[in-house]
Request: fold
Amino acid sequence: MADDKKTATLSFGGKTLDLPIYTPTLGPDVIDISKLYAQGDVFTYDPGFTSTAACESTITFIDGEEGVLLHRGYPIDQLAAESHYLEVCYLLLYGELPTGAQLEDFEARVTHHTMLHEQMRNFFSGFRRDAHPMAVMVGIVGAMSAFYHDSTDISDPWQREVASIRLIAKMPTIAAWAFKYHTGQPFVYPRNDLDYASNFLRMCFSVPAEEYEVNPILSRAMDRIFTLHADHEQNASTSTVRLASSSGANPFACIAAGIACLWGPAHGGANQACLEMLKEIGTVDRIPEFIARAKDKNDPFRLMGFGHRVYKNFDPRATVMKQSADEVLELLGVEDNPILQVAKELEKQALADPYFHDKKLFPNVDFYSGIILEAMGFPTSMFTPIFAVSRTVGWISQWKEMLNDPAQRIGRPRQLYVGAEKRDYVDVENR
Ligand code: SDX
Reply:
């Protein structure tokens, strides 16, 4: 933490406190308020943490005004164009781009951990066939704590490393098997001769009745979607993983908590909600009706895939995703996909509307990802599980960073209590 001996002076109630200011590598300065309660007997109040830095991190930097997203300093658009998901995983986990030998070793380790403990197959059959795949993923990942005891001791660096590789490697298998269970088709085992994205597509779409050839265009698009969703600073699900981990919970339980949080439609569930919204709009002529609803304070409807807590200009991932959507749909010969036409016209009309412009509401990563995933043959229920597969490396990287931070302690926010004053119990006959 850069410490320039700058301070912020806070005066209230006859007290004056000098609070340290730290200057980051990039982004706004931070005021250290950790001693505020001890010295000033007051709390700060910041519901939703709009102005609160919860930790020090070296992994991802976002500039919401400029639409910048860096992973260990590398811009997301360069990584999406030049790199691939497992190389980005290495970068996020270890801090530097790997040498050829390091990458080969890492990919081999991930490849050889893609199978699930065979007895875990039984867990899937405990769910209803129509269970949402996210419900299955939360259950299966949490249950990994019961199968991989040799990688649950977070005080052992080797066990932390093994748990990291196991989670990154097994998430595609878990997501694919959740999909197969939902459809009633047999599980497909991973193959060691396929790359990460191709393996996932094959586990999702191949059936025993015929040979399955991975379409390289879809595999590249799948890998790019994984890359674009890999990490995103201290978003809700990552903060959930950090808070769960701060109690010393095992990595599988913490990642299951992250999956549960990601499921929400305001967060990772927005890609499913966005496509369902585009289908509900259906045709370009109905767009004004939905834009009016999104602007109506009395209508809870929001444009899914629009807006972001941090990006107030544009989401750089959405820009790359939009290019990818055009490429994939053209290559699949569905460039005149009516949903894509609605999405493009909706974006155009919303961005021309002062309401969205003034409130800095722009398409986010979820706006176009669903269109690509649908074109690839995924049902909307699989959109957020795919987001979870990708974000696992981000959760794990942030989890490792937190465990290695000597300043880390159990997360325990306080509150602004506005409830009843102290009062005595009243017997039921006297109420
Ligand atoms: C992700 O944090 C991350 O990094 C998340 C993520 C990641 O990679 O981890 O980027 C992934 O979660 C992307 C966001 C996906 N969610 C959606 O697309 C759902 C739709 N968007 C919104 O629900 C909303 O924009 C949020 C949740 C994304 C952000 O909410 P904020 O920052 O708390 O903003 P807000 O709810 O306070 O809204 C500010 C104003 C409000 O109007 P006023 O009360 O000021 O009059 O903007 C309005 C809102 O009503 N508004 C919208 C809107 N989003 C906000 N109005 C219409 N449509 C929308 N989508």
About this structure: Residues 48, 232, 235, 266-268, 270, 294, 302-310, 359, 361, 364-366 surround s-citryldethia Coenzyme A (CB under 6 Å). The chain has a mean pLDDT of 95. The longest helix spans residues 157-183.
